[in-house]
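Section 3.1: Structural characterization of target chains.
Under the original work plan, the team committed to producing a structural model for every single-chain target entering the pipeline before any wet-lab resources were allocated. The record below documents one such target. The sequence was received from the expression subgroup and is listed exactly as submitted; it comprises 666 residues.
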Amino acid sequence: MKKITLSLLGLAMCATSYGQADQNQLPAQKKQYELETVQFQAPRTHQSSGTEAVYWSEDFANGIPATWTNQGFDGGLQPMAAAQWEYRGPGTTPGVGTGSRGAFAAANDPIQSATRTNGFVIFDSGWLDNNGSSATVGQGVAPAPHVGTLTTDTIDLTGHQYIMLELNSYARVFFANMQIAMSPDGGVTWPDTITAYSDATLGVNGASPNVDNLQYNISAELGNSANAMIRFIFDGRPGNANGNGYYFWCLDDISILDLPNHSVRFVENTDGAPAHDIIYNNDGLSSKHGIMPLKQNRPISFDANIYNFGSQPQTNLRLQIDILDDNDNVVQTLSSQSVTLQPDSIADYNVMNTAAWTATTTGNYRVVYSALSDSVTGADIPRDTFQIFVTDSLMSTDFNTFDNRFGTDDIGPDGSAIASRFDLVQGERIFGADIWLSNTTVAGGVVEVTIMDTTGFTFTNGFPGQPLAYVQHTVTAQDVANRVIRVQLRDASGLPITLDATNTGAYYVVVTMFSNADANPINLRNSTHFSQPSRSSIMYYTISAPRWYTGFEGSLDLNAPHIRVITCALSDPAGCAVSVEEIDLSNEIKLYPNPADEYVNMEFGDVSGEFDLRIVDMQGRTITTKSELAVPGTSVPVDVSMLTPGVYILSVEKDDSVSSFRLTVE
């Protein structure tokens, strides 16, 4: 039996050699469930090759069957009567509309299974430990660490050799193992156990989809057994310095049915490698830029782990990657080598990997992972789709997914920081940055945004050099409403910063946060789409012993923060050009009023003649161009009434001199 989950959630632990301990990580802490990001967790279902006969099932329409055994234990496995599974039904209190009652549950969502309204079961670890209040952690009716087991009566599977277990599940975990044990002899022995979820598979503070359809090949364990039994175990003993167990596990619609002959799945590998992965520039330690300017484009390769869930060998099994453009045209198809895969076996990323693809134009590309074989065809082919954004001027490690928030609530109210690493393959000009916010941010806090070279950085001593660019910004109500802060980044001379791709070619954009002692919290959006190498994002933790860390143990709470730099647009090279006379020309021109409403006036000093004017937005797109005549001591009004409120670059070009001004339109 492969000790794996087929819920296809394997994104949690590959940042450092697929789960290897990182000395620069902090012990994880319990965290409130985030309602803001719940909508991003979609249910998973599995394809099979036909209609399977059902041999046994339980949907809890009549409660937990009287023939089942419901037991609780403490951390030493001594009986603890209160640590039991609960039934939620139409006539119970709480009822079918309530999920976890624990202090950190927030949503209190029940499992959204097809038969939820007639009842489901839950092991509510958080509530058992804290009785629904964060002020009484460890003071509940069954404090963690605890263990709860729910065991079926015997099931006769005589004559059914190739079988699978299927159930609907919903879980969230801090430090716990949620397991399914199997006995072929009526409970005398329990030789095999499946780990459905753990902090390693979901990630610390992570949750499964609601509802998650789990299927397991149990042919070798219970096939042809006349006295099969199944035991569902919430083991809350694994833990760290900040606690054990938590949060909950809901179950419904459990059945044993025919195993399909031909079925394959994408799964997390037994070493923790994710079900799907993406590698940039043939370097597993390179940041994975889900948003990347064409100028910084680089080869991208793909890999996966594919599991033979069926009863028959799969011949010519292979990974196929189809890359589609905005118009759904296939621009590239890549394939791994093909293998014959035996039942209950995994072809891992060492075999299921492809050559590299390099984008040649900007666009939003869909990357479709398909697991193909001679016998798995049509609707039975498992496919998963991700997106890569190749842009004119934006660059970030996030993949445009908002999976959780992270900020002063997690790492300290004042002086804490989040930094995202940008790996350059060519020199770059940086104009500014977009810092995307959670709706839990409160206006009034301050952020400082800097660009730092990675050379000489250490986690204990930080960055040895001075910032290459710096800006301070007070978070406004409009920033919170827009969910984004846009800042302009300039060097000591007031010019956009130029970064060199030679030497390390890696730079951090650092966002330091000041929340006025928690009165104005600042929390950024974070993406967990693909697990990043450990140093792609780092945090400065100020709650105790301030220093830099890669994040929290076993957690993707900090993985790919939505920190997006605005680079020089290839489509507008003139707007990015800077002459050596730029500063001299800028001394001869004054802009007022700035911020502007309908017009901005350009006043000329000792400069005359024809000049070209260009207004460029912060994505590098040219909004307007015009020619004007400069007369010393006079001013020219420039109409900006057609511009939407925001920050722009106004570029003035005369002969070989170019000057760029920041223009704010209200």
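The domain at 401-569 is CATH 2.60.120 (Jelly Rolls).
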